[in-house]
């Protein structure tokens, strides 16, 4: 492979990139993938007593107080205090102190109460995976295995949620494999460095770059939280931000596939790089699943996506806002059903576009 041929490959990749058909499934988080193990107010009271609070507090009254505190703090400090407060933890501290302040003087609250609660609601002590989520993720794992060729169709799963950044920790805590470090939204710098590596006779710098991360064994390939993107569902931009990551992942997947076969020399490295830059997302089919009609179903369809409204029966203490009377809204009562729909849609889509 000569240098001239490498440059020909590079420019051919740019002019006529390989368009990879991509099937995307996104889900809401709380109320769809996982739920509270116990009612929030019960967990609040138990933690407060663990921290040393002696006062007796009625959980129903605390629940009402928590709702009021949440609403108030969100109005004063939108999006969990982003750009106004130091961190989401400071925002939640205000919520917790206001919620308990109806029953206990501020100076009687344990000093570690807010910190303890913030950490508690980032793990498996507070949440649990819905049993019907496992069949869905098993289906996605099987699909990813069947479509693992870096030159072929791509299956991606993401989460779009109105949440602070703890959503990633919660998803991992309930047993899911989450892409720990999503690809940088702009990977041009990594590609530019690849040519500098070659010029300096450093081999395979691009394919070792931490800007390029992808694994077919992830349950969640990307996460779009309202805190990080500045967009809340039902704003269609909540999904548009996720699409920016989706567009880069065919290239990232191709680059990662080269890690198992180190280049023998600089020319081989340059040739692999020239091939990699030619991968793009082609036709995309996107299905969103969530339990709230306004935020999930209407938001996703406003973003021109397919959507399923999840309306579970007998879901304990979980509050769902699926009240909908429109007869043409596609609903499911379990993620088991969603798993079957995803399998059929993905395989049918890839067969149609192949």
Automatic annotation (TrEMBL):
Name of the protein: Haloacid dehalogenase, type II
- Gene Ontology cellular-component terms listed: nucleus
Classification from the root reads:
Eukaryota, Fungi, Dikarya, Ascomycota, Pezizomycotina
Name residues in a coiled coil: none
